[in-house]
Amino acid sequence: MTFLQFAYKNVTRNKRAYLAFFLSSAFSVLIFFTFAMFLFHPALKEGYLNNIAKKGLTAAEWMIFVFSFLFVLYSVNAFLKSRNKEFGILLMQGITPGQLRKLITAENMIIGVMSIAAGIIGGFIFSKTFFTVGAYILEMDALPLYMPWKALGITACGFLLLFFFLSQFTILFVRSNTVIKLIKGTDKIKPEPKPSVLLSLFGIACLCGGYGMVLKGNVHGAEPFIILLLTVIGTYFFFSQSSIWILRALKKWKTFYLRGKNVIWVSDLVYRLKDNARLFFIVSIISAVAFTATGVLAMYKSTVGAEESAYEMEYLSYSNNPKEQTHLKDIDHELKTHGFTYKKDKIDVSYVRYQEGDTVPPVYMISESDVSTYFHVKLNGLKHNEAVYFPGTYDRNFKNEAPDQLKLLNQKGKPSDQKLTVKEVKKPLISLNAIIAVNDQTFDQLKSLGDKASLYGYSYDHWKDSLEISQSLQNEIYGNYIDVHSDFASKAGTYYDTVQLPSLSLFIGLFIAIVFFVAAASFLYFRLFTDLDEDRERYRSLAKIGLSEREMAQSVTIQLAILFFFPFVIAVMHTLFALRTLAVEGYSDVAGPLSLTIGGFFIFQLLFFLAVRSSYLKKMNK
């Protein structure tokens, strides 16, 4: 038998333990490769959105690679620790440190090459589906298949180097131990975990403090950071100290602890929670971030309506704007140059402010006749000092409602004696700001309270194709945001900010979250199957004194359910309190998208739990 064959036999003999590592590594390679195929696609060479998509995909590639580095490092180190006794025997039989290094490197490279091959093959198989879904979410043209030589080379070389260098690094963990320590392996008797009561209460107090700040509402200033800090610290100590303290308290509750199988699963769970406390902490925090971010992005994508604006492009010029004509010529030139046939309207408005508590929101005042002429909205005859309120397209996603009465300010920002009664709140007309419509007589009387301005509206077809010129005009009009006397907005720009960019973030974030979930599940899988032989012997001993197979299955199921869903439940709690903050801040319709997000991850977790439980019980009964 050659040395390479010996390494291959070691891998195949330990396929039960290596399986989760192989599948998770292959899945990471698959996601990395498909993102690389998307990133280097010839159709993404030009276009503003395409450039942003490429930057987002590049950031995702680095995140996946760094995460894969940490995942492989953790997994390889864990595998080596589980085989300490085997390495100790090999050293006693005369294997040199150099040969041991070659053996470990060969084993890791075998798994690495197999993972890379499986991930790339899977990437090719699912590439068409990935391109179709990605193009649909980002609202791009359908992407054709191509031969991704660059993506193939970067993926293969990058992950080969990753597996090789980590193999050399992890050998240090083996070489630092003596032969005696290696032979003892993991057979040391673990002392019962003894949590600190003070730290246990501190963890619970941090969580209660963070949740309490959310419940009181009006989160602003430094409070979000304080809430985040309390939640993170509280979660860590809850898993590492409080949960074990609670289980030890259950052991003292004799009527519960000594009833049936409870004595078995409670005792085992104390050790399992202690061993996996850091993993549970990381899983719960990142899961909460994934749930909240994905749910909010899905909500934002589904609720923002750029198409509600009456104009495809809006330009507001104030009375003291010296660049008005220059900007108008630039807008006309850009639209004509790029082949857009457009219609331009000019509307006289008054830029006024009104008192609302401690704030003085701005609003555009427009006459009833102009609203009817340019926006084709009939207001059925407004009375003197009556107004109809039209929120901006951005405002409609919040629960903010116009006050019943608008207390107008003068140009110096001081309260005037003029008040408008809001008769009705209608759908948005433009993106730049909210509009109040008053009858012509009231407009002539009150327009002097605000700054005289001109609103130019541009109407044209195929507005989604005007993103690049919209971005160019916006940069030109606002410049360095110094001495600006105008405002600019476009449907394409609004749609990009509120739909396409969140869609890109959602598209990338979902896959990164899935990669993490798969890796976290594989960690649990490895932890369970590493201790399988020890658990089997313990349950065999218990069977001799009367433990039935049914009771053993129930005990294992309870432990597995807690291990799989305990971090998930904590993550959902964090997410619900984050949802509470968003609701207080005025976001609406968060619950629907968030429920779909959490439900999807729960189904994945449930399926994986059922598969692991079935496999684990089969192995235990052998």
Report the helical percentage: 55-70%
Total of helices: 20
In terms of structural class, how would the helical and strand content be classed?
A: alpha+beta
Q: Give the N-to-C terminal Cα separation.
A: 31 Å
Taken as a percent bin, the fraction of beta residues is: 5-15%
Write the H/E string, N to C: HHHHHHHHHHHHEHEEHEEEEHEHEHHHH
What gyration radius follows from the Cα positions, in whole Å?
Answer: 32 Å
* C-alpha geometry: elongated
The number of distinct β-strands equals 9
Q: Please state the average pLDDT score.
A: 81
Going across the biggest sheet, name each strand in turn. Answer: 2-3-7-4-6-5
The biggest beta sheet reads: 6 strands, mixed, barrel
Instruction: List segments where confidence is low: pLDDT < 50 over at least 5 consecutive residues.
Output: none
Write up what this structure looks like:
It is a single chain. The chain has 622 residues and is of the alpha+beta class. The chain has helices at residues 3-13, 15-39, 48-82, 84-92, 97-138, 149-175, 179-184, 197-216, 223-252, 254-257, 262-275, 277-303, 324-337, 368-375, 440-446, 467-478, 491-530, 532-544, 549-585, 591-620, and strands spanning 313-318, 343-355, 362-367, 386-390, 405-409, 415-425, 435-438, 451-459, 486-490. 66% of the residues lie in helices and 10% in strands. Strands 2-3-7-4-6-5 form a six-stranded mixed barrel. A hairpin with a 5-residue loop joins strand 5 (405-409) and strand 6.
